[in-house]
């Protein structure tokens, strides 16, 4: 069975659209249709029904979905473990939401190296939607992200609540209108909604960045302001390199730990999860 045909099946299942699934996989729509057709021929079952408002799984497609996710994950695991050197027994993959590398990845890698030197690790840093795709496809085993999606075979639990504060390169008060030098750091959909509600007079932002470090670097080089994680800039506040904007509303951002359910690898997953929980406890 062709593994790329199964990937195509999962992508159509996720998007509900052959066209969007083809775009996501960087193939033509005709190639996407051919992959699904080949899979259906191999299974001797129709997997999708095309309707005006999208594509839905048939009952047979719904039953195959559970097996498809397992097949993809097992293939990824086999591919990764077959490439391991003799120094390692297995490999575990961690996905981390952008902007949380320093607070999560750095201490987690040290924790794993100290306690599980026989485990190889690999890290992916991206947005929530992409991390969920990597989890679904078995490319990673556990992720810390903002916006989890409930998909078969994964467990979701709250990881942390973190404070976002508006800081500036010079002392100032909060203003309702757009401020020169303001950098909009995109902390995800929940933040975008809250920001629009708190500052309804600002329709667009001159500079939008996805990485907080980029926004911080721009502020330090050229001046300006942005919402940043309080825990990441406390030293700069203490040294008066940055200043809290007076009367600015604070915002909370929640992160979630999402991990796959794989009983046959539960011991490996538990080691990675234990490390993340230890980091959380140390930082709380």
Brief overview, please?
By secondary structure, this protein is of the alpha/beta class.
Structure description:
- This protein is of the alpha/beta class and 284 residues long.
- The protein has two domains: 3-79, Arc Repressor Mutant, subunit A (Orthogonal Bundle); 89-284, D-Maltodextrin-Binding Protein, domain 2, CATH 3.40.190.
- Helices cover 46% and strands 23% of the residues.
- The protein has helices at residues 3-15, 18-24, 29-43, 59-82, 101-115, 128-136, 189-198, 212-222, 230-238, 266-283, and strands at 48-51, 54-57, 90-97, 119-126, 142-145, 154-168, 183-185, 207-209, 225-229, 243-244, 251-260.
- The strands form three sheets. Strands 3, 4, 5, 6, 9, 10 and 11 form a seven-stranded mixed beta sheet that branches. A two-stranded antiparallel sheet has the order 1-2.
- Helix 1 (3-15) packs across helix 2 (18-24), helix 1 (3-15) crosses helix 4 and helix 2 (18-24) crosses helix 3.
- It starts with a helix and ends with a helix.
- The model has no long low-confidence stretch (mean pLDDT 89).
Please give the structural blueprint.
Layout: H1 3-15, H2 18-24, H3 29-43, E1 48-51, E2 54-57, H4 59-82, E3 90-97, H5 101-115, E4 119-126, H6 128-136, E5 142-145, E6 154-168, E7 183-185, H7 189-198, E8 207-209, H8 212-222, E9 225-229, H9 230-238, E10 243-244, E11 251-260, H10 266-283
Parallel strand pairs: 3-4, 3-5, 7-8
Antiparallel strand pairs: 1-2, 5-11, 6-9, 6-10, 6-11
């Amino acid at each position: 069975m062709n593994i790329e045909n199964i990937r195509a099946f999962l992508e159509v299942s996720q998007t509900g659209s052959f066209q969007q699934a083809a775009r996501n996989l960087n193939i033509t729509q005709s190639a996407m249709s051919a992959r699904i057709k080949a899979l259906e021929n191999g299974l001797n079952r129709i997997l999708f029904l095309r309707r005006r408002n999208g594509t839905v799984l048939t009952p047979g497609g719904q039953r195959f979905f559970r097996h498809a996710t397992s097949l993809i994950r097992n293939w990824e695991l086999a591919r990764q473990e077959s490439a391991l050197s003799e120094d390692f027994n297995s490999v575990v993959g961690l996905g981390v939401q952008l902007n949380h590398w320093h607070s999560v990845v750095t201490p987690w890698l040290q924790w794993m190296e100290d306690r599980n030197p026989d485990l190889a690790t690999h890290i992916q840093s991206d947005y929530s939607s992409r991390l969920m795709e990597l989890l679904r496809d078995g490319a990673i085993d556990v992720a810390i992200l903002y916006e989890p999606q409930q998909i078969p075979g994964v467990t979701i639990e709250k990881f942390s609540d973190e404070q976002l504060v508006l800081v500036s390169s010079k002392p100032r008060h909060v203003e309702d209108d757009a401020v020169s030098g303001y950098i909009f750091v995109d902390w995800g959909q929940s933040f975008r909604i809250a920001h629009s509600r708190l500052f309804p007079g600002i329709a667009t932002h001159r500079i939008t960045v996805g990485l907080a470090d980029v926004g911080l670097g721009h502020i330090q080089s050229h001046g300006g302001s942005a919402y940043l994680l309080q825990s990441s800039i406390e030293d700069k506040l203490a040294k008066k390199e940055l200043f809290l904007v007076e009367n600015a509303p604070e915002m909370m951002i929640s992160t979630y730990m999402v991990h796959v359910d794989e009983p046959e690898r539960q011991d490996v997953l538990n080691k990675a999860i234990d490390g993340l929980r230890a980091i959380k406890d140390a930082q709380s």
